[in-house]
Amino acid sequence: EVQLVESGGGLVQSGGSLRLSCAASGFTFSSYWMHWVRQAPGKGLVWVSRINSAETNTTYADSVKGRFTISRDNAKNTLYLQMNSLRAEDTAVYYCARSSGGYSYGAFDHWGQGTLVTVSS
Amino acid sequence: QSALTQPPSASGSPGQSVTISCTGTSSDVGGYNYVSWFQQYPGKAPKLMIYEVSKRPSGVPDRFSGSKSGNTASLTVSGLQAEDEADYYCSSYAGSNNVFGTGTKVTVL
């Protein structure tokens, strides 16, 4: 069974940093593109970032470019999101999601349960 | 990187059909056949309902169907049931990024 479990969320002050983790199991993690998606309280889903299986290709939403860094450790089956210079508007539940078929254009076929990041101003 | 446009709400009585639109541009919805639809209940993670415009993952009822014309994709839920009441989001591959729709709350009357 595919499982994605996020951790690392919490309360942080504006300007601070936080690193999220997403532990993957039940599939060959090293073969799949992975994404981070966030959802502010009461708002819609917003794509944040994606990374290819070999960690050679990363892309970001304009709203986080230069502040967030996506990475992965295929030996540990774990996806990361390093978030720096956090702002109040980054407050959201952050989900990791798998891209189906091992492609960047694959659908988000499995999601974690999410981890809440709250940035206080 | 603008969000895809969805109507904020849609509704129907049990047994009826409801169709949700998702409008983008030639850079996302219109440029690729990689449109997905997700169902989300409050406090829960999204669930993939449709991928590649019209394909259903295993386990998704055939009451859910998808289509696309030009820059607009659509999700139709036929034979509405009480458990279909949820938020629905479209998503599209856009080359250098991915983008979600603004979301539609479906109410079963």
Structure in words:
- The complex is a heterodimer of chains A (121) and B (109).
- Chain A has 121 residues and is mostly beta strands.
- Chain A has strands at residues 3-7, 10-13, 18-25, 34-39, 45-51, 58-60, 68-73, 78-83, 92-99, 108-111, 115-120.
- In chain A, strands 2, 4, 5, 6, 9, 10 and 11 form a seven-stranded mixed beta sheet that branches.
- In chain A, β5 and β6 form a beta hairpin.
- By secondary structure, chain B is mostly beta strands.
- Chain B has no helices and nine strands.
- Chain B has strands at 9-12, 18-23, 35-40, 47-50, 64-69, 72-77, 86-93, 98-100, 104-108.
- In chain B, the strands form two sheets. In chain B, strands 1, 3, 4, 7, 8 and 9 form a six-stranded mixed beta sheet that branches. In chain B, strands 2-6-5 form a three-stranded antiparallel beta sheet, with no helix packed on it.
- In chain B, β5 (64-69) and β6 (72-77) form a beta hairpin.
- Chain A binds chain B through residues 35, 37, 44-47, 50, 59-63, 95, 100, 104-109, 111-114, and chain B through 1, 3, 32, 34, 36, 38, 40, 45-48, 51-52, 57, 89, 91, 93, 96-103.
- Shape of chain A from CA axes? globular
Helical content of chain A (DSSP H or I, runs of 4+):
under 10%
User: Which two chains have the most extensive interface, and how many residues on each?
Assistant: A-B, 24 and 25 residues
Biggest β-sheet strands, sense, barrel of chain A: 7 strands, mixed
- Give helix % range of chain B: under 10%
Q: What is the residue-averaged pLDDT of chain B?
A: 97
The succession of helices and strands of chain A, N to C, reads EEEEEEEEEEE
Strands of chain B, total number: 9
Broad shape of chain B:
globular
How many distinct beta strands of chain A? 11
Q: Which structural category fits the helices and strands of chain A? A: mainly beta
Profile the largest sheet of chain B: 6 strands, mixed
* Structural category of chain B: mainly beta
The low-pLDDT segments of chain B are none
